[in-house]
Specification:
Blueprint: E1 2-4, E2 6-10, E3 17-19, E4 23-26, E5 28-32, E6 42-46, E7 51-56, E8 59-61, E9 64-66, E10 70-73, E11 79-87, E12 90-92, E13 95-97, E14 100-109, E15 113-118, E16 124-125, E17 129-138, E18 148-152, E19 158-163, E20 175-183, E21 190-197, E22 209-218, E23 223-231, E24 242-245, E25 248-251, E26 257-262, E27 265-272, E28 276-277, E29 281-285, E30 289-297
Parallel strand pairs: 1-13, 3-14, 16-22, 23-30
Antiparallel strand pairs: 2-5, 4-10, 5-9, 6-7, 6-11, 8-9, 11-14, 12-13, 15-17, 17-20, 18-19, 18-21, 21-22, 23-26, 24-25, 24-27, 27-29, 28-30
């Protein structure tokens, strides 16, 4: 009985490193030294303790046999793995085709994740309750519904937690968001807290992600300060003037008026609007106040100028 040698290869190389559980599309090719048509002969891919996928050669052209496109999942565990691609010894029409194989090594890594925190008020009243939104996204758009989010203070102590929502954030394809309720520190201070995603309960391994956010605490408000901004000479009210009294901010409405509630003390009042010159002033707040602010039209102030307040 005649014996023919065979050679096995992969149509497209498998990446040496990829994310755990990633989908791989490939074709297995087998050629016979004598150019035999081997369609219908089985092939398989095996790991140490299991068959990853079994198929058969489905096409023949110019001495090469190949499978259809095969879809395989990479191992779901992080680490190094080896797959054996195998064409078993096979007898066909009185000819024995010898076994051929190929070992492919691959390394799987956790899925990359990213995180953002928004909605934190600043300032917030000491010991006041508030909430933040924490969003997490997997680079391969895995569903992360129900995953735990923790918020920790500067010492690493957990001070709040929440679960990612069941559906992606509106307008996104894979951003899952948790609402975390928190309590502000007891004294006036500036802190930097962080949110953390560990993915301990995920079916597939995900890399941890974290994001920091700042928070300023202040005393409870005691007085209202109402500011009216008008153009000098015409007394026309100015809308959308950005105001700042210390750490407190507001913008004027269509009547040129903005109101801020804040504790007593001495504050620097700053105001800004493109195209106008508005001089700063110092304000002593010991009761409710009504302040008049004049804005001088200043053509040399470019309307594209941007005011940045830290």
């Amino acid at each position: 009985m005649a014996t023919h040698q065979t050679r096995l290869e992969i149509g497209e190389p498998i990446p040496a490193e990829l994310e755990a559980g990633a989908i791989i599309t490939m074709r297995i090719k087998v050629s016979c030294a004598e150019g035999c048509d081997l369609r219908g002969v089985p092939v398989k891919v095996a790991a140490v303790d299991e068959v990853v996928i079994a198929s058969e050669l489905a096409a023949y052209e110019k001495g090469t046999n190949e499978t259809e496109d095969l879809t395989v999942k990479a191992p779901g565990q992080v680490g190094e793995h080896a797959w054996t691609f195998l064409f078993p010894r096979h007898e066909l029409d009185g000819v024995i085709h010898e076994e051929s194989s190929l070992v492919v090594s691959l390394t799987t890594r956790p899925h990359t994740t990213s995180m953002a925190v928004w909605g934190a008020p600043s300032p917030v009243v000491v010991k006041g309750s508030f909430s933040v939104k924490v969003g997490v996204r997997c680079a391969t758009e895995c569903g992360l519904a129900g995953q735990l989010i923790e918020v920790c203070d500067e010492s690493g102590t957990r001070i709040g937690e929440g679960r990612l929502g069941e559906t992606p954030w509106p307008g996104s394809t894979a951003l899952y968001v948790a609402h975390v309720d928190l309590i502000a520190p007891a004294g006036e201070t500036m802190v930097s807290w962080s949110a953390r995603f560990a993915a301990a309960e995920s079916k597939l391994p995900h890399a941890e992600a974290s994001a920091a956010f700042g928070l300023r605490t202040v005393r409870p408000p005691e007085h209202w300060v109402t500011v009216k901004v008008a153009q000098k000479d015409t007394d026309a009210p100015l809308e959308n003037v950005e105001l700042r009294l210390g750490v407190y901010r507001a913008s004027t409405d269509a009547q040129g008026i903005a109101s801020l509630e804040l504790p007593g003390g001495t504050y620097d009042l700053d105001a800004w609007k493109a195209g106008y010159e508005i001089f700063p002033r110092t304000v002593e707040v010991a009761k409710d106040l009504m302040l008049q602010v004049e804005a001088l039209l200043s053509p040399e102030k470019n309307s594209d100028d941007t005011q940045v307040w830290m």
